[in-house]
Structures are given as structure tokens and as C-alpha cells.
Amino acid sequence: MKILCPAILDGYQRRKDRSVSLRLLTQEQTSQDLMNIDSLLDTFGILYFRADDSPEDSVPFEELDSIELDLYDKKKTQSQRLRAVLYKLYKQEGGEGEFKDYYKVKTEKIIEHFKSRLQDE
Fold it and tell me: CA 49 to CA 10: how far, in whole Å?
């Protein structure tokens, strides 16, 4: 899914981890547009912002679509990614009890799954 609409770069904030939080303002949006935006919350994507006075700097959508998004994942180790995914699952399932207990149970299931596939030596 894509968001394509006119917007004004309203401000930015430097963050502790050296990333930047951008604030964009759009014109009025329809209910469907808002639903599309809402469905994209917490997803990783690409932001292409072009000032209206620089059409010669236009980037074709094919080029944007070819940008590799997996670069985001490389900021975390595999174990950090697994822990983050299990935490989201924990929250989706109601988040009852301590996460550390949930994490231990789930990782034990993963370990047992792969141990059962090992051949006896």
C-alpha cells in the first residue's frame, strides 16, 4: 500500500539514536485515506519528499519500488528481532503475566521443535 498526497514538511526532531522524526501536514483526507494511513502505522517503508519547485529531481516509482527495505532489519540481531516479534505476539494475545515468562515458554517451544528434527548421533 502507498500513500501519495501533497504535504508540507512542518518540522523535524533529531533523536537520541541519530534518527530523525519528520512531521508532515497534508490537506484534508477522506475516511478511506485515513483508514489507509492507519493501516500503515508501525510499518517500515520509504519516504520520498519532493519540493514542488524541483520537478527535474523526480524519481520514478519503479526506482522507489526497487529500494531494498530489508536494510532496516540489519540494525537488529536475529535474537533481537525474534524477541521483538514475540513481544508483539504477547501483546496481541492479551499480554497477561510477565513477558519474560511468555518469552521463555515460546523460545523453549522453538528450541524443542528444532531439537526434535536433529538426528541421533
Answer: 12
Map grid coordinates 475516511 to a residue: 31
Q: Where exactly are the structural domains of the chain?
A: 1-69, 76-121
Torsion of CA 20, 72, 43, 62, to 10 degrees: 100
The pTM for the full model equals 0.47
pLDDT digits (tens, 9 = 90+) for 73-117: 556 778 888 999 999 999 999 988 999 999 999 999 999 999 999
The DSSP code for 119 is: P
Q: Residue 83 burial by CB count (10 A; 0-12/13-18/19+): exposed, middle or buried?
A: middle
d(CA 9, CA 4): 14
